[in-house]
Amino acid sequence: MDVLATQVDRRDPRFVENRDENLKAIETLNGHLAKSYAGGGQKYVDRHRARGKLLPRERVDLLLDRDSPFLEIQPLAGLHEAGVPGGGTIVGLGWIERTLCLITASEATVQGGAIGPVGLQKSLRAATIASENHLPVVHCIESAGADLPRQVEIFVPGGQAFRQITERSKQRLSTISLVFGSCTAGGAYVPGMSDYTVVVDDAAYMYLAGPPLVKMATGEEVDDETLGGARLHAERSGVADFLAANETECIGIGRQLVARLGQQQPVCRQDGIAPPLYPAEDLLGIAETDLRRPFDCREVIARIVDGSRFFEFKPLYGPTLVTGFAELAGYRLGILANNGVLYGESAEKGAQFIMLCNQQNTPLLFLQNITGFIVGQAAEAAGIIRSGAKMINAVTNSTVPAITLMIGGSYGAGNYAMCGRAYAPRLLFAWPNHKIGVMGAEQLAGVLELVKRQAAQRSGKPVDEQQLATMKQMLVGKIEHDSTCWAATGRGYDDGVIDPRDTRTVLALALAAVHRSPVRGTTRWGVFRH
Predict the structure, then answer these.
(1) Which residues contact 235 (CB under 8 A, 6 or more apart)?
(2) By C-alpha distance, which of 352, 353, 358, 345 is closest to 316?
(3) Which of 40, 48, 37 has the alpha carbon at shortest distance from 203?
(4) Of 190, 183, 234, nearest to 209 (Cα)?
(5) Rounded Cα–Cα distance for residues 70 and 496 (Å)
(6) What is the mean pLDDT of residues 220-241?
């Protein structure tokens, strides 16, 4: 493979400006993460500790192997909703007894761990990641059940969570529930349907209806322990498989159960792997914060792949889409990265490259910085719709795992062609400079202005220039806000916003996850229009 050269000048004012702006964005990211990590706030943290309990993140830390990273999924879900940091649940990937697992933990300091719409969305995303990548799941549960005032948003879709547990069990993918506190109503079905359930004595409770509802329904007065205490479920009901004396023992039993799944693998493939030749710190100056300015995606590739080696495919054809082969943390992969708008030649090259990677059982990495497909009379006559459809067809029907990283803009059908969320990449992450939308705010507002003017002309009415200018200004502000990475990650459109300097580490763990199941490509495709 060729070693990528770099043209980066760290003294270039543009590089310095990008670095400074990206550092500010990372400060914002860290501020949002700190609020998510703080759970329900000091008052509820103190109350939780006063009950002799470990905090949810402490439970996760004890569960993980000593040297294991923890790749948190959607830590800023619900950023647009006040009072529910992280959607009230913790989700991530990490190694337990040298087995890569998907781990969830109820954030018991946020509304008692109750599940709301954002938490449900996040939990369903976690289940999808576990199933697609053949990962065992460990739940650390302490949940008050559904957020009852919002039950209309939760009840019907929430049934998927229970179905997915049994589907994974059928696939021989175990679910282990460690119960540290209350599991009420639907929450009780999670441990009830898991393959293994461990409960903490004098702390864990599981019941379909808590004491207040039992009294309302039957008139029976009963306390938590008598109704659904840990010892009752371990000795009489049979819901619990193991009774732990305390939280530490519960976590220890959970680790033993994972060890007995017989799925151990090394934490990371390190031997003989050459790191990139150039520092990851450079990514802060390379990643443009003004997305109207282009940057060479090869400079990004050179700082994330092994030895900065990249075997470029069709380098002279369709140059606005860079395609080629590399290795990252010892895993081979095919890379598709944007170097400008997608032309017909770029799209057709992308489709061919995706087909080749499927033929070779090679996972795909999409690096998105795309304004969309080229438009205009010449492009339409040349068949840009046909070429774009060909690439989208290939992305849709590809069966090798895909990982997507948003390193800039993601606009229009370019989002689809480069494997955006709707095209089911196994994992999808974003840098803080990322923006997403049908088109840029100025372009969208300009289009609507033209539509308003044409409508006024057809009706023979004068244009209210002041009203039109105000509408345009308000629309630009709204679109700018809605297209930021913070708005997107809050809605769960990605699996997390990451510091660009952590890109190689994040992608290495993502590749380890996708290799938990066999990587098999396809030679079957939908109809390609020629």
Answers:
(1) 243
(2) 345
(3) 48
(4) 183
(5) 13
(6) 92
Integer Cα distance of 298 and 173 in angstroms: 38
The answer to whether the Cα torsion of 9, 14, 15, 20 is positive or negative is positive
Note whether 108 and 181 are within 8 A (CB).
yes
Per the listing, tokens 């502000």 go with 477
pLDDT, tens digit, for every residue of 46-80? 999 999 999 999 999 999 999 899 999 999 999 87
% residues pLDDT > 70 (the chain):
97
- Measured over the CA atoms of residue 509, residue 512, residue 517 and residue 518, the dihedral's sign is positive
C-alpha gyration radius of the chain: 25
- Give the separation between CA 201 and CA 188, rounded to whole angstroms: 16
Strand ranges inside 434-489, DSSP E? 435-437
Strands (E), 424-522: 427-430, 435-437
pLDDT computed for residue 114 by the predictor: 80
Task: Supply 463's token pair.
Answer: 């244009």
74-129 pLDDT tens trace: 999 998 776 788 889 999 999 999 999 999 999 999 887 888 888 899 999 999 99
The set of residues, in sequence order, having a beta carbon less than 8 Å from that of 219 and lying 6+ positions away, is none
Residue 270 has pLDDT above 60, yes or no: no
Res. 185 pLDDT band, cuts 50 70 90:
confident
For helices 186-193 and 151-170, the axis angle rounded to 10 degrees is 0
- For residue 468, CA distances in Å to 443, 449, 450, 463, 472 come to 15, 7, 10, 8, 6
Residue 70 confidence (pLDDT): 96
Residues 6+ apart with CB under 8 A from 403: 363, 364, 365, 366, 425, 426, 427, 428, 507, 510, 511, 514
Task: Compute the C-alpha angle 418/424/425, nearest 5°.
Answer: 65
Count Cβ atoms within 10 A of the Cβ of residue 328 and give its class: 0-12 exposed, 13-18 middle, 19 or more buried. Answer: buried
Q: Alpha-carbon distance 57 to 70, whole Å?
A: 11
Amino acid at 115: I
- Please tell me the distance from the alpha carbon of residue 499 to that of residue 72, in angstroms, as a whole number: 13
Amino acid of residue 68: S
Answer whether 103's CB lies under 8 Å from 94's CB.
Answer: yes
List the alpha helices (DSSP H) in 246-383.
Answer: 247-259, 283-286, 297-301, 344-359, 377-382
